[in-house]
Amino acid sequence: MILSALLTSVGINVALCLLFVILYSILRNQPRNADLYTPRLVAEGKVQHEEEFSVGRLLPSFKWVIKAWKPSEDEILSHSGLDAVVFMRIFTFGLRVFRFAVIVGILILLPFNYAGNQLNIDFTDLPNKSLDSFSISNVDDGSNRLWIHFCAIYIFTAVVCYLLYIEFDYIASKRIAFFYSSKPRPNQYTVLVRSIPVTPGRSFSESVESYFSEYYPSSYLSHSMVRRTSKLRGLVNKADKAYKKLVHLKSKNDSQQRYTRSGCLGLFGRRMDLDEYEKSLEDMEHDVMTERSNIVGKEVAAAFVSFKSRLTAAIVVHVQQRLKPTEWVTEQAPDPQDVHWPFFSASFFKKWMCNIAVIVACICITLLFVIPVVFVQGLTNLDQLETWFPFLKGLLEKKVVSQVVTGYLPSLILVLFQSLVPPVMITLSSIQGYIAFSKIEKSACIKVLWFTIWNVFFANVLSGTALYKADIFLEPKNIPETLAAAVPGQASFFIAYVVTSGWTKIFSAKLFRLKPLIWSYAKGILCCHSDEEHEAPSIPYHSEIPKIMFFILLGVTYFFLAPLILPFVLVYFCFGYIVYRNQVSLWCSCLFLRILTICWIFGSLPFLFRTIGKVCICSFNLVLLEQLFNVYKPKFETGGKFWTVVHDATIFALVLMHIIAIGIFGLKKVPIASSATIPLPILTLIFNSYCRRRFLPTFRGYPAECLINKDRMDENDPAISSFYDELATAYRDPATKSRRDSRKSESSNSPLLDRSNV
Is the pLDDT of residue 449 over 70? Predict the structure, then answer.
């Protein structure tokens, strides 16, 4: 890719970012968009719908910018939980890493790359200059300048490992502090018991009562049996939707509109009036009540067992209960609202088959994704594209068209295909047998992360060279050389990818919420509005964390190969994180030019880069906090366990950089530097092992010291007795809870079933 094509891609994406920001500032002022841009506030009853028209709402307003500065990390913790804080810390970590990387890469490595003569590039025509002239490929073979890159790799690795340790230690301490400051939670006192043995003449419930009353008489509190409710759950969902539709129809003033059709979206099928619809709903309610009465005897060999202290629950989780380890198997229970009920009643064979099916599906998706990758790589090569499509030869000869096709279109197509992956992975994870939504989310997060690394990174860098030579990964000695030959050539593509998938998507998908906006207006056109109880979305960790970590991988991998990518990665992290919450945008805008001028006059370039990073943060980085406070509402709390995924992915990125460095120095005929790099991945893995031994136990469970101290603190809490009463019914399956009488609440928007404590 030439420099002008990259600038074309950057210009298009910057224009789109500004467009999305302006449109968002206008649309968020419209009353009808409150459910779209402030769903959390609407769900909490903090937003009142105003129907009066006002011309002022048609003008862009940036008051939301000032509001986004104010919250501190402690406010985020109390408002959205520790997982949201950890999510913010990923941006903190990325900003610190790439602020250092930009200083070293742009000020030191880039000039040495540019001054090389390996590629024999004509430097007179700057716009048509290849981006390879800024990469390590332009450094002469055997040049002593490569030792600068060697030293930079060692220093950069040390800095990243230090920052990783600092963040791991900080989040571990935050996790303990969050535990001490939190109110009693049901999952802290509750254990999930599986594989309850069959006792002749006793039900599973009686066996649980007898066992725990005998062995834990002083601390056993209560238990809730798990039952087969899959059929009941389907009936409940069907009746719930019918009830909401009936309430919506009765709320209409026009008698001509108070009917529906039995087909899709209420637009097709036989016409049904209110009387028929009420009769249909009564039949559904009768089926629900009949099935609810039948599930009493449908117990599963699993139960939620609650205790009077956290310490006892932790002991039960970590201690084998019987001589036979396959009986009375225990694990920590998730929060009641985090429980995923469908797979409790699944047999071992069904779970085993589902896991095999998921593995096969992931392999098939991975192989199928090669098709768009090969097509995208064809777009970056005009000669290959003209060979595939000869009729486009005349069109591709036009300069503007060729710049758009090679600079913007490939990354856009890849982003569109990649957006289909997270929902597929969350679906696959949900059928693997996990009992908690948080575990499903974490499993999907790992799947999406490694899918992205393999299909977006490896498939792209190896396409055209070794894409179909999968056996190279079976011969470790050939991996460094193969990657060293392939990775530098894809630097320009990944720069455009960062701009398209990072800059533009964070504004279109997260701030502007383009997909929900289109769906909202489509439902309005199809007359599909209903008076359903509004529910705010949760943070999509399974799609956001892999995306962030992939940008970290790109920045780390190309740190010494193509430093030109580093400023683009840094700007992405500036777009995703707010560091100066208590400052106002006016201060930044007024002093921006003055600060840059002073820095330039005095030649303080490191300070200049730090200032640019901070001003970018203060000027643009409001997206994430705006979403946390207005859009996303946490559906579960893992206590920061997603950080382990971030740590492992960063270690992988460092080791990958080291392997590529070994191959690069070998290809560049500096064998001593290649050999001297070999200890670096070993030292990095040793550091990773130390961090896991030092911090990982804290993320698996809380120490006995913390549990005992917290139990002692709660002994003097007068509300603990009422908490015990609520704990007895906290883990009841939502499908078994009683409904509200729809005939007594015709004007209500409440769902058919009482979903309290769900």
Answer: yes
